[in-house]
Backbone:
């Protein structure tokens, strides 16, 4: 059993963990639940040797652990899959998995064959269909997450901490992960599982611990809990669900795309996108569902001018044909893209919240044409911090210091600041807690009511069904369905999402 | 509360280098009675002025996560161009053409040449995706070669008293080069802190991908930054030429190292996105004082290099330690 006793952790005077007590049971899946910034990741980093300066004790198998670092924790059998991906983009999958624990042969030369063989086995286990020699940087976020999981599996640890392992993978991969977790559980391993998707937790978790504001407020057996009770414990109050779908019709096209094709980067590969056509209307929220690799992100990127050389097709904004070759042109036409990977594409982690939010609209924050208007900038960022409920003590805080969910809100803020007419959201609630998630759905509704057209990509079907007016489904780079949300159910959407897999 | 704390840590880092500087001065002053004289003081400042100009340009580039190894050669070439145009003008006997240059014209031509050379660096880097280290390494050789061609390998001297004002003159009791360097620092400091361009520079160094998606023309920003650095190297070249009243074909050799050292001692991260002009000025002053002290103390040139390298290491290590806490 892994026990945390009276753990307190401070960052530059800010208390992130306040006298936390917790027990993690072997042979069980222990869920840690809490709002963004509650301290879940921080606690896990303490338990896995990332943070070594804390007060209190970690007790593992009746012994007090003094971890000196992650290597030490790993040696003692504790590994963590971080919320923010921790892979080296320039190295291959194999090299990442064996980073720091490379296998050598008798004369001390890297045994690449053996490492590749083991990687193949691990990849098969997590059902990631990729070449072990592929560069991690060329993988999508969801695939990278699977690599992280494979990496953790390799160490054969007795305690495996998963900090939001499913935030970027879709239902099919989640099911597969649960099979893996089941296996680990039956081997008697301690699994720690953090997720904001309550439905998942009820499926997989045996026990739960609720955290709020750096404290553990309750723990117990999952089966004795209801969703509402959990939410109340997390937030300290009841939560209003999102407003229902308005059943109106939308007539004014804002974005119309016609026969979008995107060539694969490899010369002889098939198209990544094939003949995609659809229309986005004023005030409409369109949900775009698909499994990992269906081409949703590529479609968003194409619309935002990131693949000018490989893409063909026509794009009309307000029925005017436009040529979007760069993000700058996309922004000029009123398009905004909240990217999938906030760390790599969304944020400048080392800079202030304020500078991250204002970067897209600096031209509107100038006085006399050259000098930045600091007061206006501060006002703008304070405004968004308040509107989106970003949990921080100051707009001058460094973005990288915020919890994952709050970082995601900064990315959202920086794009809302541009006042877009067309908002492309790629997994916008990735890592966002249930309360904030409802806030974001309501915000989307409000923006749509004000006339914005929103395209929402999500790997979560419930999210698509809750938030959208119309549902598009993609499979293998093609659009396979386009229906009003009233006709969409989990089963028929899924059917379209795997359609091509069956026929092919 | 916390925001205030943060500012304090920044000031602490500044204070640290200030303390280092004062200590350095004290040690030199104790060992040599020539150090704390007016003459020497102005002399040091005049020497520092050149490195400040180059280092400011270097800082802008390093903030974008780039580097410029060509500044020393560009400095020499532009100094030589200015000197050559001033002295000889452009003669084309075959076409019976002669263009003479006033001082102002020659200065402008030199600075524009510098900006163009810098722009070319930026062009190669952005258009062909050549790493800045390689692109500017090539320019280091090219510009040096062009300097040799332009000067035929001989110094261009005797440029007249009016021109030498730039390097040796005084204005309101302060040497002219110090005025120039001061202006450069003020403008660059303004750009980095108060303008959109400045923000873009930091954004590109901080996360280039996020910057692209945010709608920043990173190529344009890089072109501007490399051009500015080239122009500032030219300004340095003109100051050197004027001070010596002569353009030396091998002027500025190794200056890129002093500039990079100033940037690094000043706390700017070589991986981009973090640092300040103020820090660089401090770095340049520390190097300048050190150079001067070592000469005053009659340290052999061989040892001078060893000591300088050691000081750079110590400064950076202290800086790293301060940041961790
Ligand atoms: N390195 C750091 N420096 C300063 N503050 C930090 C740092 N890491 C975390 N914090 C603060 O500690 C608090 C807890 O953050 P933590 O990342 O543990 O939250 P979380 O429960 O994992 O949230 P999420 O669900 O959004 O991932 C937050 O207020 C955060 O701003
Ligand atoms: Mg977290």
Residues:
């Amino acid at each position: 059993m892994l026990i945390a006793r009276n753990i307190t952790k401070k960052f530059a005077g800010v208390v992130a963990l306040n006298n936390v007590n917790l027990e993690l049971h072997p042979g069980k899946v222990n869920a840690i639940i809490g709002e963004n910034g509650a301290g879940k990741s921080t606690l896990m980093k303490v338990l896995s040797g990332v943070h070594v300066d804390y007060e209190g004790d970690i007790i593992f198998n009746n012994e007090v652990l003094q971890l000196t670092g992650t290597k030490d924790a790993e040696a003692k059998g504790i590994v963590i899959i971080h919320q923010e991906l921790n892979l080296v983009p320039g190295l291959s999958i194999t090299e990442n998995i064996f980073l720091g624990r490379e296998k050598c042969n008798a004369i001390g030369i890297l045994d690449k064959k053996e490492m590749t063989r083991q990687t193949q086995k691990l990849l098969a286990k997590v059902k990631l269909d990729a070449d072990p020699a592929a560069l991690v940087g060329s993988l999508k976020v969801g695939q990278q997450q699977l690599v992280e999981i494979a990496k953790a599996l390799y160490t054969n640890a007795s305690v495996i901490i998963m900090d939001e392992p499913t935030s970027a993978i879709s239902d099919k991969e989640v099911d597969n992960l649960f099979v893996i977790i089941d296996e680990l559980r039956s081997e008697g391993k301690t699994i720690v599982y953090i997720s904001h998707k309550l439905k998942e937790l009820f499926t997989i978790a045996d026990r739960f611990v609720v955290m709020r504001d750096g404290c553990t407020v309750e723990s117990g057996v999952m089966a004795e809990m209801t969703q509402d009770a959990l939410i109340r414990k997390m937030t300290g109050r009841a939560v209003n669900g999102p407003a229902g779908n308005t059943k109106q019709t939308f007539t004014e096209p804002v974005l119309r795309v016609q026969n979008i094709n995107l060539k694969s980067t490899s010369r002889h590969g098939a198209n990544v996108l094939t003949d995609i056509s659809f229309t986005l209307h004023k005030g409409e929220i369109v949900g775009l569902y698909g499994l990992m690799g269906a081409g949703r992100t590529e479609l968003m990127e194409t619309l935002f001018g990131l693949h000018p050389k490989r893409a063909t097709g026509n794009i009309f904004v307000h029925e005017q044909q436009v040529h979007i070759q760069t993000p700058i042109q996309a922004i000029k036409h009123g398009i905004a893209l909240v990217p999938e990977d906030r760390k790599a594409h969304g944020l400048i982690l080392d800079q202030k919240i304020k500078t991250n939010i204002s970067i897209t609209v600096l031209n509107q924050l100038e006085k006399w044409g050259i000098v930045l208007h600091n007061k206006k900038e501060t006002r703008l960022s304070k405004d968004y911090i308040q509107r989106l409920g970003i949990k921080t003590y100051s707009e001058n805080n460094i973005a990288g210091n915020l919890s994952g969910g709050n970082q995601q809100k900064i990315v959202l803020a920086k794009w809302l600041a541009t006042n877009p007419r067309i908002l492309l959201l790629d997994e916008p609630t990735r890592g966002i807690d249930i309360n904030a998630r409802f806030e974001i759905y309501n915000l989307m509704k409000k923006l749509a009511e004000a006339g914005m057209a929103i395209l929402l990509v999500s790997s979560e079907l419930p999210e698509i069904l809750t938030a959208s007016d119309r549902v598009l489904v993609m499979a293998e780079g093609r659009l396979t369905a386009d229906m009003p949300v009233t006709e969409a159910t989990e089963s028929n959407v899924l059917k379209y999402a795997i359609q091509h897999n069956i026929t092919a | 509360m916390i925001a205030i704390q943060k500012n304090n840590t920044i000031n602490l880092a500044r204070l640290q280098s200030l303390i280092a500087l004062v200590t350095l001065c004290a040690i030199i002053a104790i060992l040599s009675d020539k150090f704390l004289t007016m003459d020497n003081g102005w002399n040091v400042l005049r020497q520092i002025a050149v490195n400040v100009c180059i280092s400011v340009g270097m800082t802008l580039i390093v903030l974008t996560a780039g580097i410029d190894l060509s500044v020393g050669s560009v400095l020499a070439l532009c100094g030589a161009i200015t000197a050559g145009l001033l002295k000889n003008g452009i003669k084309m006997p075959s076409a019976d053409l002669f263009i003479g240059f006033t001082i102002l014209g020659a200065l402008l031509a030199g600075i524009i040449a510098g900006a163009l050379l810098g722009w070319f660096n930026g062009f190669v880097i952005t258009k062909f995706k050549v790493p800045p280290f390689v692109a500017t390494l090539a320019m280091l050789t090219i510009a040096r070669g062009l300097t040799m061609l332009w000067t035929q390998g001989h110094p261009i001297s005797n440029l007249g008293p009016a021109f030498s004002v730039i390097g040796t003159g005084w204005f309101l009791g302060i040497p002219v080069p110090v005025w120039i360097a001061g202006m450069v620092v003020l403008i660059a400091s303004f750009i980095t802190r108060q303008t959109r361009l400045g923000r873009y520079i930091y954004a590109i160094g901080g996360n280039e991908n996020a910057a692209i998606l945010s709608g920043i023309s990173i190529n344009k920003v890089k072109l501007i930054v490399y051009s500015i650095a080239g122009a500032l190297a030219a300004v340095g070249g003109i100051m050197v030429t004027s001070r010596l009243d002569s353009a030396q074909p091998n002027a500025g050799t190794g200056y890129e190292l002093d500039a990079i050292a100033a940037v690094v001692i000043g706390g700017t991260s070589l991986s981009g996105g973090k640092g300040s002009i103020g820090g660089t000025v401090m770095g340049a002053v520390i190097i300048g004082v050190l150079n001067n002290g070592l000469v005053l103390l009659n340290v052999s040139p061989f040892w001078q290099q060893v000591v300088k390298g050691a000081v750079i290491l110590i400064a950076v290590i202290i800086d790293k330690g301060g940041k961790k806490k």
